Amino acid sequence: MMFSVLGTQILWYVTRSSGLLALLMLSATVALGVSSAQKAKIREVPRVYFADLHRSLALFALVLLSVHIFTAIVDPFTHLGWTTAFDPFKRSYRPLYLGLGITAFDIVVAIVATSLLRKHLSNRLWKAIHLGSYLVWFLAMVHGLGTGTDSHFRFALFVYGLSLGIVAVGLWIRILSAKPKALVLRFVAYALIALAPFTLVLWGLSGPAKAGWSKRFSLPQTTIRTKSTQVHGSSNSSSLAPPTTEIYSDDGTSQ
Amino acid sequence: MGGDKVARITSKSHYEISIDPTVCDGYGYCVELLPANLTFDDWGFPIVKTRVVEAEELEMANHVVQLCPRSAFKLSKVKG
């Protein structure tokens, strides 16, 4: 009984929590990578430990991301197939914001693959793909906020804010230690740093943080309603019965 | 620079580390890990100050060769 109650729901909880945790780890990885990527510079703190930490955190984020994707696909409610992980868009479940997350994952795969094969690739190719980390982080933020199951929870917003802060600090450290020659670059970076969080916060507060946001992206309400009412009378008949809207309320509240 | 040390080791073969400066980007992890052999030049790029790698540093030298993001190192066995 306990398991049947938890059985399907726990996947959904794990999907959400591992997603948030993966975002935090990704942010830490990006921040470490950005802040410690400066070269040809004599420094007091040994950088090699930061490089190790960067790699370990990246692995941790990857594990969490795998859990996030695995549970999301296995979860019967989302109706996602195994090809989902590599094929963005054309999904029935919140297609736009899920697609952004899938795109981010695909870039992650490219980044990890090129890093593992780094010795066999040209440095420019490796770096060009590694720069995609910025995009991954941004897409992950929009994917998380936009999919929106937890986006109106204060705790989730705190996690997003923390992620933003972590990456901002990493960028800040990098900019502060830039060579004086790179003034134009520094200025552009300042502008971007000011703009990106600003727009993210503005958009986040205007859309996903408000109640009812995720409803707009759920499956057509009418079809679910009729299905659930049909099933309602014979809910004990099979385990394949589609979950009702009551089980996976889009507000994140489960009942 | 490293020639004086080479002359002292006569009995067995030993290992020498060298860096390809055209490949190096100056990440500098190597200097932190292998200060006995490497140091920074005035611009923050690593240079070899002692070519001969002592036996107790050999493991770390191998690690440096593996770790270098640009694969700029060569650790070669030298006879005599």
TrEMBL record, chain A:
Keywords: Membrane, Transmembrane, Transmembrane helix
Entry keyword annotation includes Transmembrane helix: yes
Transmembrane regions listed in the UniProt entry: 20-37, 57-77, 97-117, 129-149, 155-176, 183-205
Pfam families: Ferric_reduct
InterPro entries tied to this protein: Fe3_Rdtase_TM_dom
Region (Disordered): 226-255
Protein name in the entry: Ferric reductase like transmembrane component
Originating species: Ferrithrix thermotolerans DSM 19514
Origin organism lineage: Bacteria, Bacillati, Actinomycetota, Acidimicrobiia, Acidimicrobiales
TrEMBL record, chain B:
Highest taxon of source: Bacteria
Protein name, UniProt field: 4Fe-4S single cluster domain-containing protein
Organism: Ferrithrix thermotolerans DSM 19514
